[in-house]
Amino acid sequence: MLFASTRLSGTASTHTGNRRTAPARRLLSASLAALLTTSLLGLASQASGAEPQPAAAAAAGHDPVIMIPGMTGSPANMNTMKSNLQTNGWPSNRLFTWTDSSSMTQDLARAAQELSAKVDQVRMQTGADKVVLATWSASTLAARYYIKNLDGADKVSQYIGFAGPQHGTTNNGCQWYVSCQQFASPNTPFLKALNNPSEVPFNDRIDYLTIRSTADYNATPTDTAKLAGADENYLMSGPMAPNHLMIISNATALAKMRSFISAHEND
Fold first, then answer.
1. Which of 159, 244, 144, 150 is nearest to 207 (CA)?
2. Edge-to-edge strand ranges of the sheet holding 95-97
């Protein structure tokens, strides 16, 4: 069972959460140099007939994104998401798909430990201070465990959770897997500990987005995928809303993810 689910449409939701201090201003000389460089590049572009590429230039500063599938999934499940980001200007060398050694079927605390090692490897490889975690289904829980209980608070800039069983699920016929036992009801010991005292740990440092759909019959009820205190809980509804398997490749959901990342990068 791939607990990790297709169609379109969405409705906006609420924004909450703490804001962080804006980045320091650049030196005046650096600003003037950047302005001169931009002007010269614009003139060169006009002379050659080429169109300027502002999106690609801006994307070069994106934090690396680690995309993680759900229970029994494989990194290949996240290829559409990866391609979508790359098509929209994210450099390929800052996009990573990954899962733990059990494909999210083991104890999710152990999966979080493996995620910690992956985050360190990506940071070393890219030179970035922090990463974005784009998670799906069961991996939404492993990522939150990593942020709350391990060393993720200082290494993650944004958390994005697609269709996560954040408060358990009524579709729980997968309990031969240890991870499924951990979210098989709202009151499992794992979820009680994870969701208290805050469902969005260290939200003074990390921005949180959840994306859920009324057509999801795996993470049920629909609002199980919400996180109290998230910067945004985005609900997709209507006849074209995606199911659990397709939400991570849905064009509307991916556009929401991209806009959220861009909007919160300098928080």
1. 159
2. 95-97, 65-68, 131-136, 156-162, 207-213, 232-236
| Cα(230)–Cα(200) distance, integer angstroms | 6
Q: Strands 156-162, 131-136: parallel, antiparallel or unpaired by DSSP?
A: parallel
CB 167 within 8 A of CB 191: yes
Q: Is the pTM of this model over 0.90?
A: no
Smallest Cα–Cα separation from 208: which of 130, 138, 148, 260?
260
**69: phi then psi, degrees, rounded to nearest 5:** -80, 180
Residues 27-55 have a mean pLDDT of 37
CA–CA separation, 153 and 138 (whole Å): 20
Q: Closest by alpha carbon to 212, among 9, 2, 1?
A: 9
> Sign (positive/negative) of CA torsion 15, 20, 25, 30?
negative
Please compute the mean of the pLDDT values over residues 148-157 and round it to a whole number: 97
C-alpha neighbours within 13 Å on the C-beta side of residue 138: 35
